[in-house]
Write a structure and sequence with these properties.
Elements (H helix, E strand, L loop, with lengths): L1 E3 L36 H16 L6 H6 L8 E6 L2 E8 L3 E2 L4 E2 L5 H4 L3 E3 L2 H5 L20 E2 L8
Parallel strand pairs: 3-7
Antiparallel strand pairs: 1-6, 2-3, 4-5
Bound molecules: iron/sulfur cluster (2 copies).
The site of one iron/sulfur cluster has 13 residues, from loops.
Length: 155
């Protein structure tokens, strides 16, 4: 399956702040580039999710992967950042058949819909899938988006 988020509100779109000098190791002699000796918290969390996915989910895009989806359709509704929380809104992607919760352009979804993204560690790290989605079932500490009874136009 896939995932839809308003890109202008994406946390990932913000430029990463440079790490504080105190957290960096010493620069190489003669270099003005600081040497970072450890991962950021976000990088470590992405690694944790990646390892969990490799151990607990079928390979992405395999028939077994696709079969996990229960077609609740929630990942195809608009999502919006409000502060540090991701909101799951009531407005669907224009390609979503809201009766059967099927995508009308599934094979070409990433070409046809710029907001559509494949499910992967980045989506899971931001809490983009509902907690009852099978792709995050059993992931320790997972928190999904907050479901809000508003459309994008009402926000
Ligand atoms: S089960 Fe998960 S991947 Fe499938 S439609 Fe629902 S939220 Fe999306
Ligand atoms: S293009 Fe299809 S898979 Fe992607 S968000 Fe829209 S309905 Fe969902």
């Amino acid at each position: 399956m896939a995932f839809r988020i308003r890109s202008g509100e994406s946390r990932a779109a913000k430029p990463a702040a440079p790490p504080p000098a105190a957290r960096n190791g010493p620069a190489r002699p003669g270099s003005s580039v600081p040497l970072r000796l450890h991962k950021t918290r976000k990088e470590a969390e992405l690694d944790r999710i990646r390892r969990w996915m490799e151990k607990n989910l079928p390979p992405p895009d395999s028939p077994e992967w696709e079969a996990l989806c229960t077609h609740c359709g929630k990942c195809c509704y608009d999502k919006l950042w409000r502060g540090k929380r991701l909101l799951l809104l009531k407005s669907p992607c224009g390609f979503l058949d809201t009766v059967n919760n099927r995508c009308a352009c599934y094979a070409k979804r990433f070409e046809r819909e710029p907001l559509c993204m494949p499910i992967g560690p980045e989506i899971i790290e931001m809490g983009g899938l509902p907690v009852d989605c099978p792709y995050v079932a059993g992931l320790p500490g997972y928190q999904g988006p907050i479901e809000v009874d508003k459309t994008l136009d009402e926000c």
